[in-house]
Amino acid sequence: MTVAVLGSGPVGQTAALLLARWGVPVVLVDEHVRRDPVGSKAICHQRDTLDVWAALGAGCLAEEGLTWTTARTFHRGRELFSYRLPDAGSALPPFVNLSQARVEEVLDGLIADQPLIDVRRGHRVTGLTQPGCVEIDCETADGPRRIEADYALACTGAHGDAVRRAVGERLDGVSFADLFLICDIRADLAGWAAERRFHFDPPWNPGRQVLIHPCPGSQFRIDWQVPDAYDLAAEETGGALGRRIRAIIGDRPYEVVWRSVYRFHTRLVRRMRAGRVLLAGDCAHLFAPFGARGLNGGVADAENAAWKLAHVLRGLALDGLLDSYHAERHAAAVENAEVTTATMDFLVPRDEQGRRYREDVLTRAAGDPAVHALVDSGRLAEPFWYADSPLTTPDPLRPAAGRPPRGALPPPGPGVLLPDVTVPGGRLRDLARRGFLLLTTPGVASAGLRSVGIPVGGTLGACPGEAWLVRPDAYVAAVLSEPSPADVGRALRRASGDAAG
């Protein structure tokens, strides 16, 4: 009963720790002998990602990260508007900024203390086969090695071509023409520490965009959109990079901590399950980073995969439950691709009509608050709702209403992540992550499941006589009115992957 987790970036680390938390032995495979701690890389971590890490014992990440609550948007140097992120009644902040290197360091510490995780560094995956199990071929400094496991979760990132080829998949989609220059700088910028700043067409980067994120330790991450022919080395040699930075921060001391140039992509695999292999994170999908949907979406992949693999391996569900991993997380990837593609089309219009539309929106937004919603600098990462999942029992009294406006939360109901509610026994999300949980209003029996009493009304808006079935990833699987034990059993079987319910 072993799962091989391929790749030990934050998504693979999270998956390994979640599986071990369920009691599943893990072989964690990575091609790198040691970590590269340089550069901020993925920095923007959403509340529900922090919640998963806190459940694993990494609550310090929310505490160490720099919390930002305000997003400001500018056009040609003039502020158009700002908005505050909703607090959602949670003890966790809506977003924190913290370098990927620090996240990896903390998660590595937890992995080192977990006896169920066997870490194999310096193992480059070259291929795999599935002869009734998963056989993973690796190249190491000591020659070829083969690892066998019951299932594999591939978190090998954008460059995980060997795994994708082995299961007949590839990342299909588009690459954007413009490049983006990213610099981490250290400087004293008073008043900028709790704000994300987005500039459309600033005078110091005409015709393109700049994004500024605060980070701990008086560091700031600056992203410039630059032309395809941009030459970082030439700009550094000629002093243009320094002038570029000073145009933003003024004549004050600063230090360049890290810099790099990226091209952004929107690419997806067709299937996130291929037999005994599940694909997760950047191995399965690539998004432009505006909105921070890459790493945050990958952690959601990891939690979705982990509880399902654990339930199958422990005999609590049939193998068909794993089909719902693709159904749910591929739908999430498609939505993330649509959201980030729309953002890139606004940032970098494809034609003259798009350019005229963007200019019209930005011009009108300066004086008309009704236009602010049309300004697209990236809809921030949020959980995907599984209203259409085969695991979800629909409730005619709570039909799925689609995505709420930017910054708003949907009402609780089937397919929605449980609000971060505290009850006498603790936080409901923590209780749910121990296995299926039934929330019961007064007078409703538990039907033999672990149960917690909830009041009528309250944060969930529960009605008298209702029972709420919650999945092990804290999503609501069903809301049942005056349920019999048979009703609860059918919803539980459906949420466990039994299509017959």
Automatic annotation (TrEMBL):
Region annotation (Disordered) ranges: 395-415
Source organism phylogeny: Bacteria, Bacillati, Actinomycetota, Actinomycetes, Pseudonocardiales
GO molecular function list: FAD binding; oxidoreductase activity, acting on paired donors, with incorporation or reduction of molecular oxygen, NAD(P)H as one donor, and incorporation of one atom of oxygen
Keywords for the protein's UniProt record, in alphabetical order: FAD, Flavoprotein, Monooxygenase, Oxidoreductase
Cofactor(s) this protein requires: FAD
Keyword Oxidoreductase listed: yes
Protein name as it appears in the record: Pentachlorophenol monooxygenase
Feature: compositional bias, Low complexity: 395-406
Domain FAD-binding: 2-335
